Automatic annotation (TrEMBL):
E.C. designation(s): 1.13.11.54
Gene3D superfamilies from the UniProt entry: Jelly Rolls
Top-level EC class as recorded in UniProt: oxidoreductase
GO biological process: L-methionine salvage from methylthioadenosine
Protein name listed in UniProt: acireductone dioxygenase (Fe(2+)-requiring)
Keyword Iron: yes
Organism: Craspedostauros australis
Record keywords, A-Z: Amino-acid biosynthesis, Cytoplasm, Dioxygenase, Iron, Metal-binding, Methionine biosynthesis, Nickel, Nucleus, Oxidoreductase
Catalytic activity: 1,2-dihydroxy-5-(methylsulfanyl)pent-1-en-3-one + O2 = 4-methylsulfanyl-2-oxobutanoate + formate + 2 H(+)
A Pfam family that the UniProt record links to this protein: ARD
GO molecular function, one term: metal ion binding
Length: 186
């Protein structure tokens, strides 16, 4: 059964933990305040940094070592190979690294499995920064507006490869289960 939870997070606080899996992911609501774009040292393909002017974004990037950034727009006319890509985004999968998205415009749904393997739906929208830990099962879909523009952040050289479920023997999955699922049972 598909269990969908709608999280409204208009709270103007720095960190807004998601209720069902507060130790699994953080959502940040960012303020749009001016910040000089030249202080970002290594965005490979930033098209419009004016969209990401929150000084707290810089401090989070510095603190967590997010050295890479680029921007993806998901809309049929903006994303080459749209049909195949949105299909792949919505296949349940893991990555072998943390997934970090700062939403510059639009909105969409990230679905994540909680520790009981139930779906939790997260509605992310402009101004949100969301991180998913390595090895968590998840998927993404646009919402009714069919448009989202996100900064993809990464520690080091980016790897976007999805490993579709099942991946129980994948080292990243094993690490996730050990760190989050088993931990929670104790
Ligand atoms: C991904 O890796 O799933 C994506 O980049 C799509 C979602 S970004 C809002």
């Amino acid at each position: 059964a598909f269990v969908s939870h709608h999280f409204i997070h208009d709270c103007n606080v720095m960190i807004c933990p998601v209720v069902l899996c507060s130790h699994l992911l953080c959502q940040y609501t960012m303020f749009a305040l001016p910040h000089p774009s030249h202080s970002y040292s290594r965005p490979y393909s930033i098209q419009s940094f004016q969209d990401a002017l929150d000084p707290r974004l810089k401090s989070i990037r510095d603190d967590r070592g997010y050295s890479y950034a680029d921007i993806i727009s998901i809309r049929p006319d903006l994303l080459p190979g749209y049909d195949d890509k949105v299909k792949a985004f919505f296949e349940e999968h893991i990555h072998n690294a943390e997934e970090i998205r700062y939403i510059l415009d639009g909105s969409g749904y990230f679905d994540v499995r909680d520790t009981s393997d139930k779906w939790v739906r997260i509605h992310i929208k402009k101004g949100d920064l969301m991180t998913l830990p390595e090895g968590i099962y998840h998927r993404f879909t646009c919402d009714e507006t069919d448009y989202i523009k996100a900064m993809r952040l990464f520690i080091g050289e980016p790897i976007w490869t999805p490993f579709n479920r099942p991946q129980e023997d994948h080292p990243s999955r094993a690490k996730y289960v050990k760190d989050y699922v088993e931990e929670k049972k104790e």
